[in-house]
Amino acid sequence: MKLIGWAIALAAVGLTPAAAQAPQANTATANVSEATPAAAAPAAAPTPVMAPTPGIGVPDGRKGIQEQVTDIGKEAAGFHDNWLLLLCAVISLFVLGLLGYAMVRFRRAAHPVPSRNSHNTTLEVVWTLVPVLILVAIAIPSIRLLRHQYSPPKADLTVKVIGNQWFWTYEYPDNGGLALQSYMLKEANDPTRGPKERPRTDADGPPLLAVDERMVIPAGKVVKLIVTATDVIHSFGVPALWQKVDANPGQLIETWIKVDRPGVYFGQCSELCGARHAYMPIAVEVVPPAQFAAWVASKGGTMPGSAPPRPDSTAISPVTEAAAPAAAQANAGAPAAADPSAIPQPATNQAATAQN
To answer: Which of helix, strand or coil describes residue 265?
Structure first.
């Protein structure tokens, strides 16, 4: 027993250095493996993208509505700036004037005994009709704007927009089922950026708004957007395009845009959709139609009408013109098929069949 104990002790002493050095070797190997990708496998070079125009489609700290690039957006911005704001200013000044007049005219020093009047027919008619006229003045251009917004012309392109936690999916059913996923680009010094993820550049857009895959649409074309979601409620919002529509799971919500000016326009998810709600931006790139067709081809899609015709299914049939006469001669000597009416049919319960 003593010999066995000594053997175990010697074995433990002999194995201790190897055991102590093993973690260090593993740690060194891990450090080398962690440092190697960043040095040996640089991030992929960014693909050529259209640089955004400062002040158009990009938030730059200005107050108010972004410059609109769609006809609906221009009409809505004009309605807001030239009519609603002016009307609000006039009403505010009028109410402020009434308050000032009442404070001065009916102060205690000028009227120690307050008036006991409780009814004035003329005043009651005025303060009833004036708000009605104001609402009518607001309703007429508002209803006209709604009619233009929700009466879309015939679409030239359809894009399905799908919100996910936490990225966007864009599908082009008219272009051979082209689909792509859009993720936010991270900064070069972001420790969470993977070695294969390219960093954001100024050409991609501002921080927290640049994406790796933009939704590309042709300029001057009517684009129908079908918006939905896969998990929770998201919101597809691009201020410069006058677009903000909720993406609800299980629902297809239709809207449309028509942008004549090529450029890049940014937006964000506008619903609280989870922990990374602030990190699913939207980038819409509007390009000339020829450039859009080239982009579709580069992504593996096809333009409507440009797909090659499908082969005739009869071209690969084993029955050929040479074999057809032989088959006809073989069938000529065969007995004629029996009359179906002469074949006894199985009895069925018609009532039960009709009930089923």
So the answer is: strand
Amino acid code (one letter) for 21: Q
pLDDT, tens digit (0-9, with 9 covering 90-100), for 149-168? 988 899 999 999 999 999 99
Torsion on CA atoms 21, 22, 24, 29, rounded to nearest 10: 140
Cα-based distances in Å from 298 to 152, 264, 302: 30, 19, 9
Average pLDDT value for the chain:
78
Q: What token pair was written down for 317?
A: 């049939």
Neighbours of 213 (CB within 10 A): 18
Query: What is the domain range of residue 98?
Result: 71-108+123-149
pTM of the model: 0.67
Domain membership of residue 44 (yes or no) is no
> At residue 89, what is the residue type?
A
Cβ neighbors of 17 (< 8 A, separation 6 or more) are none
Question: Beta partners for 244?
Answer: 237
- Nearest-Å Rg of the Cα atoms of the chain is 37
Question: Does residue 21 belong to any structural domain of this protein?
Answer: no
Single out the residue in 274, 298, 322 at which a domain terminates: 298
Instruction: Say how far apart CA 227 and CA 241 lie, in whole Å.
Output: 15
Condensed to tens digits (0 to 9), the pLDDT of residues 180-219 reads 999 999 999 988 888 888 999 988 999 999 999 999 999 9
Q: Is the peptide bond before 166 cis (omega within 30 degrees of 0)?
A: yes
What does the block give as tokens for 197? 């993820």
Number of domains in the chain: 2
Q: Are residues 161 and 282 in the same domain?
A: yes
**Domain membership flag for residue 234:** yes
- Residue 348 in 3-state DSSP? coil
